[in-house]
Known about the structure:
Layout: E1 15-17, E2 23-25, H1 26-30, E3 34-39, H2 46-57, H3 59-64, E4 67-73, H4 77-87, E5 93-95, H5 100-104, E6 122-126, E7 132-137, H6 149-159
Parallel strand pairs: 3-4, 4-5
Antiparallel strand pairs: 1-2, 3-6, 6-7
Amino acid sequence: MSRxxxxxxxxxxxxxxxxxxxxxSLSEVLGRGAAVLIFYNGDFGVICNVxxxxxxxxxxxxxxxxxxxxxxxxxxxxxxxAWKERLDLQFPxxxxxxxxxxxxxxxxxxxxxxxxxxxxxxxxIVDRDGEVRYAWISYDTSQAEEPDYDEVLVFCQxxxxxxxAPTDRTPDSSTL
Length: 176
């Protein structure tokens, strides 16, 4: 597994297929503002449903803060499209089917069992210049840990529509 990019480092760029067709590049999103990359284990999972529904409830607040939400996991775009429709998600869900992007961000799980080849639940905020400004990663998958949604939103609001952070920080729960 690759090393997780640290706060202040350049975020790996990518282009991935979106649930409803087409593709989306990180660099394309950064041309409009900051990006909140939400890596998650899989579509239709109980905690993933909770997480994405909460991000959807806050979606307009993130947009007003100048940030675009982007969900990423290793399911196919076909599974994504069914799940996106069921949850009525307004933000892109990208298919990292081969796990390369999850690996580039250091959040691809290995080993045996159900979570092998899945993305670890994590959130990265990338500013308009392509630098990681915030990182949270759940390392204990048995605890069904969720990100601090309010903290992620407040950080985006502090960055403002310029998409640049006044200060960098990594949440205390992260072990980066």
